[in-house]
Amino acid sequence: MSLCADGLRSPPPFDAAVSAVDYAYPWADVVAAFKFAQGLDRAGALAALLAEAVARDRAPGVDLAVPVPLAPRRLAERGYNQAWELARRVARRLGVRADATPLRRLVETPHVADLPRDARAAAVRGAFAVGPRRPSGVRGQRIALVDDVMTTGATLAEAARVLRHAGAAEVHAWVFARTPAPRDA
Question: Could you tell me the domains of the chain?
Answer without folding.
Answer: 12-178 (3.40.50.2020)
